[in-house]
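Input record (Table S2, row 294):
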Amino acid sequence: MEQTTKAKKKILIAEHSGFCYGVKMAVDKAFDLAETSSRPVYVLGELIHNPQVIEKLHEKNVKTVKSVEEIPPGSACLIRTHGVDPEHIDKAQTKDISVSDATCPDVRRVQERAMALAHEGYTVIVVGKEEHPEIVGIMAHSRCIEGANIVAVNSPDELESALQGYSKSRVGIVSQTTQKEETFFQVVAEVAKFAREMKVYNTICPATFKRQTAAEKLAHEVDLMVVIGGKNSSNTTHLAEVCREIGTPAIHIETVAELTGHSDLEAAETIGVTAGASTPDWLVQDVLHYLESL
Ligand code: SF4
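Output record (iron/sulfur cluster complex):
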């Protein structure tokens, strides 16, 4: 854990925070493609969940689109870190679109695990938000396996309705890479009450695990946590939740502007700072400079 020295308040930075290797790889790839391409580069869905980075990419002619239909034939297309439905890639290739894949290797591993479980005949449960792009991609990959049964749940309470009509006897479980460990373990424990056979892969990625563990450790030592990252970022939202769950208040912000004049800052003598896996260093530095000026 790092401590800034210029501040009047004690400011501690979590040991693991900010860009993970998967996000860094994807962002570097996008800037490289933009540099070498004379035409816009298209990304199917937001490359990462950070609006400020998406805006910078947009300035470099990297455009976010919702469907392959929006991409002109012969263009370059980049696949987001969360992965996509493989049908989109097939469709792009029929339009002579050159596809570069920035799916994080850890997300790819979950897709492969879920497909293997479906292939082995398990009813597959993905612990994550059904509408999250990573889950959409994982489920779409698994459905390529004939006879696959796959559902998503984001808490043990959702199991009963999600599994209606599916066999509960042989159950395979994987997790969204950015899921909270506690939630994953709760779902596994609940399934163990009814399944006769279970195959479980804890596919929470190491980057998420390290960020959550470091944030929780730091939250024990401070009066207030500042968590920086996209409001649409699951892993950042979970960082704030992890801090609040141990009783430390946490302010989730995207940029320093949201901190200005924030009433909670005044009373806090020790402030911890962490950032989600899709938060660039320049946003973190802006926040640290502000906290140092208090
Ligand atoms: S948070 Fe994990 S899965 Fe997501 S891009 Fe980073 S390393 Fe990959």
